[in-house]
Write a sequence for this structure.
């Protein structure tokens, strides 16, 4: 039978004293460090210490930015009208169908060339077989259909008379037509509206900076028509201010039309950098 060894009272007292000595050395070490007394005693250096964490440095970047936008609107008179008319002919064979389509298109083009028109062109020429379904027999071609589309531009006042004349000179149907300003008129108005909207956006940013007691240091980003696109999340045509003159202009936004004119709008958004506080 093995009798377990018991710790005598004297041994327990030695353990307690040794633990108390280590605790006292730890307290002395902390006091010396706090008082800046130099190195620790050798006994205190034997005590295991966790490494001191590295000093944490925080860097605050100056987030002074202002983003503002302005919109310029203008109405331009509709000075041109674009129209599309079509010719459709039918023939028993492809050769006769093509000949009939050529005769009617020549008659239509001769009429339009004698009128106040421009941008006269033909496109969309096509021929399709006409299929006859027979019961119990293979389908057969009973003829052909030929189509051609003619488009032109004129002044709005002449459009009704020209459409009627087209029907009298070979056209069989009228396609899309509508009035608008000329492209050069839109581009000239656009340049003026971009300048106007940019000045208004910059004036708003300066007013905001003055209100909060800050100063504008520079322009970070300029966006022209940031909401132009498909309507869901419009494409952004952003560009840096120093490269603004080298970038092509995004398409013009259209407003609701009134009779005789077209509404145009341009929006400019700016992001400006504020000077850091002194």
């Amino acid at each position: 039978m093995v009798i377990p060894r018991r710790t005598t009272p004297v041994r327990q007292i030695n353990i307690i004293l040794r633990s108390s000595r280590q605790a006292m050395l730890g307290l002395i070490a902390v006091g010396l460090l706090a008082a800046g007394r130099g190195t620790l005693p050798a006994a205190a250096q034997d005590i295991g210490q966790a490494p001191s964490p590295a000093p944490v440095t925080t860097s605050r970047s100056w987030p002074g930015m202002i983003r503002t936008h302005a919109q310029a609107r203008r109405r331009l008179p509709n000075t041109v009208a674009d129209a599309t008319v079509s010719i459709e002919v039918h023939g028993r064979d492809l050769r006769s169908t093509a000949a009939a389509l050529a005769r009617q298109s020549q008659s239509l083009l001769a009429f339009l060339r004698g009128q106040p028109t421009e941008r006269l062109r033909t496109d969309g020429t096509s021929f399709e077989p006409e299929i006859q379904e027979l019961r119990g027999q293979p389908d057969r071609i009973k003829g052909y259909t030929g189509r051609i589309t003619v488009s032109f531009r004129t002044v709005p006042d002449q459009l009704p008379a020209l459409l009627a004349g087209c029907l009298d000179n070979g056209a069989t149907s009228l396609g899309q037509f509508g009035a608008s300003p000329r492209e050069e008129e839109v581009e000239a108005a656009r340049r003026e509206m971009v300048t106007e909207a940019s000045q208004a956006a910059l004036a708003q940013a300066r007013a905001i900076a003055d209100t909060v007691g800050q100063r504008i240091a520079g322009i970070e980003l300029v966006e022209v028509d940031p909401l132009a696109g498909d309507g869901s999340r419009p494409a952004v045509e952003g560009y840096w201010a120093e490269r603004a003159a080298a970038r092509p202009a995004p398409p013009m936004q259209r407003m609701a039309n009134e009779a005789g004119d077209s509404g145009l709008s341009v929006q400019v958004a700016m992001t400006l950098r504020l000077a850091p506080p002194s």
Notes: DSSP finds five helices and nine strands in the chain.
